[in-house]
TrEMBL record:
CDD domains attached to this UniProt entry: GH31_NET37
Regions crossing the membrane: 286-308
Protein's recorded name: Glycoside hydrolase family 31 N-terminal domain-containing protein
Family, per entry: Belongs to the glycosyl hydrolase 31 family.
Biased composition (Basic and acidic residues): 1-12
Keywords attached to this entry: Glycosidase, Hydrolase, Membrane, Signal, Transmembrane, Transmembrane helix
Positions with biased composition (Low complexity): 178-188
Residue ranges of the region described as Disordered: 1-49, 160-217
Amino acid sequence: MHKGATTDEPHGTSRQGHGRQSKAGVPIEKENIPFVDSDHEDDCFDDGGDRLAAAISSRSTVDQEYDIMTESQENLARAYITGRNAAGPSLAERRMQEKLTVSIDTSSNDGELIEEARDKATELKLIDERAKGLRRNSISLPSLNVNELEVQRTAHECENGSKISVMESGSDSLSDGTTVTPETPTTPANLKPMLQFNDDSSSDEDDKPRSKNLFRTKRRSSIAPLPALRLNDKEMMSNDFDTHSVLSNQASITSVNSLASLLKEKMQNVPAIIRKKKRETKDYKLRVFVGMLFLIIVFLVGYAYVMYNQKLLAKSYFESIKFHKKTRNFRLLDGKGGELLTGVLGTSLNIEQPYNCLPMDLKDDGSVCYEWNSKARLYMNLAKSPGPDIKCYSFQWESLLADLYPTDCFDVSEERGFWYGGGLTKGIEYILGKATIPAGPFVTGDINMHQWGNALKRYFLNSRGVAIQVDEKTPLYVSVNTDSGKRLCLQGKNDKFAFVNQQTRFPELKYTVCSGPDMKTLHNGLMQKSLWDGLTERDNDVIKSLLREPVWQIPASKQEDLTEVAIYNYTESIIALGYLRLGHVLVNEFWQRTIGDFRLDSERFPTLDETVNILHRRGFRVSFMIQPFISTESSNFREAVAKKLLIFERESERSIPALTRYKSTTSAGVLDVTNNASIPWLAEQLKKISETVEIDSYFVDFGTAFNIPRYYQCSQTLVNPDEYKNYFMERFEGTLSIFGVSSAISVPRPPAFLSLPPVNSSWSGLQSIIPTMLSYGIIGFPFLMPGPVGGDFVLPTQQLKKMYSYYSFELPPLPDKELYIRWLQLATFLPVLRFTHLPSEYRDETVTVIAKELADIRQRVLPLLERFSSIAMDEGLPIIRPLWMLDSTDVNCFSIDDEFSIGDGMIVAPVLKKGETVREVYLPQGVWKDGIDESLRKGSRWIHNYHVPQNKVAYFIKMPDNTRF
């Protein structure tokens, strides 16, 4: 109960006592009702009660109205009581028993509230002064003196827990729920109470109900004992652990602070073992709950991770790629939802629903896998992108049957854009969609009889910014525009020649599809970068010399035509021209008696060393053509067989060589460059030549894949016959100085230039040069060497029903003058200028004048060629480029195959048809200066009926962007 409450009397006035009146107004003496420990009365109560009353009465002389106990007094009282009766009630309980009384006052105004309880602001007191008025939250006993302590001790020596009953009137009042207020002592003048209130009520409880105090909580008459507790399946009554429940109930009140104190007391009385058990039980339940919560969180996190990855995969695959699993229809979309590429995957399979692959068949790279009823599996995944704007996706088919060849087909109609790449086709089609190619192995060959030319790359590019790159180990078959319609089909198929060395048990097809913002950006990102690795200063000099100086190929279609005298006379004629630089003298394979001898024919070249020395003094460079073929008629053939240096027959002893045909040689073996013993042997043979004749460089004639023996077997297994070329170039990089190769499937190490295939000396042969240059440049060969001006041979197609690659072509007679001039005009702008027939052979002043003018133009073109050759070394871009590389958004540039650009600095539009002096010319965006009349022309338009006389060639120089007319 709060202390320090005041009445409506003046502060500091001594009250005579609280009383209550009857209905007649007769005053009734105030009754003080103490609470004691016992719950029954005995004989000791009277004695103890009298002494207690006397003690309380004597206490009034000290301070009758106040009940202040200092800390020292409280400690003294606790020590005293504890020492006398250790088993007695606590000090707090005794203070409540002896001090608290229920004051029932009756005023004249029944039910009226005399004064509300309120706090009053007081001035700050010293610590000692404030300590006198401090109260505990719970109801406190009054201060005790020595006499009072003695009375308490005597009372507790009687029966422990004796109780003084509450007076009947007070009990009735409490049971009725009436607000009962204990006596409130008057606060002395020097100490303000914390809370002051006066609670007057009517003396007649039966006639009128008591008024409610709106600012206080109704006090309950009693609090029931604590309920029974259950511990370890045993029920414990409240008396077992609460020996003072009755006392506590009687001493209870309902204020917030008192309830808190009461609960705290009760908990302190509960045995420690019960509290411990209850805490352990709660801890166990808490641990179980935390454990279950942890498992739930782990499950939710794992589930979210799986779902996120599935969503990420779906986003990666099916945001840009739409694939219908049952019909296997395929669509590649751009960022705006437009179709870049469409096709059908797995055309060799029936239409059926696939299943997800078994866990044992999944790959660690996170590929999405589908299986078609134990027939084939398809893996789809993201692939490494070469640039931030390029997205690549990998596709891999694994056949589960030996006779099932996975095949994917894509639409190549013009409505889906223009397709380029692969290589030179049999029909010399620059745009792949216009070709008709039946399914066949994708290996190099002779376009006169095979489907593909002498250089290939497994790279196909679309004008909409899509590219397909096929893995090098895939046994690739390619078909274009066959019975299936306008489609490019890629097939994985093993056979008995090109892909006889199976890399896997069953056929596989693996490729990558990439998309970019435009064709130029995509192409630049996919090209091989930096060809400078391992390049020496001498190699760089060879590149520059090939650009600046012509290659003079000694004309000889038979061994009898190539002699030491013929070489000397030819170089004399070159010097006599006077307007062309001296350059490289190329001697074909007839410098040896038999192919594979690797030594000079002493009869035809008795003093070739002296002749070569003369040529070097005049400024020429001498190059020999070599090949890895050894004729069975050569003296080296027997040695090579004995040392097992040749490719041998499949499924036979290594001593049995596999034979083939090469050019004019009807029977020859092939040096096995995968054999470590073959390289030193060939290097030793070539070293003997260098000791006799000082050779500057070599041109390697590999032939094609079909020049490899059909039942070939090498020391190391080849993926396909074309891989032989890569082995040769890798093994002889530091041994031989190679300035040209006849065939390739990868970019040869500079300074080696890739030679264009032999061209027929005709107008059709002239028209095939630009498409070939553009096609090879697109698939990644920047350094190209065209054939000689006027063509390589004359093809008697009327007399031959079938062409053979070993056919000995006759050198063409002197070509038609107009054809020669137009050919020379085109060759002037190509990287390498190559001759067999000299302009002086026509003995025509017109030809000589035109040749001199073109020599001057060549000097103006050289800076561009050198500049863009360096760019080609850095970025892998070709020197001779299609017009769409200048502007990949201009649809007019996509199909032009009779014009080309040197880098982005010059456009060349030669006349390629007999008798024409006018042609159509298209200029991309920009400002261009006409090379004929030096006029300025605006780009992004066609120039119709552009006049080009026979002695002129149309070319246009790119001007700065700020050029004005």
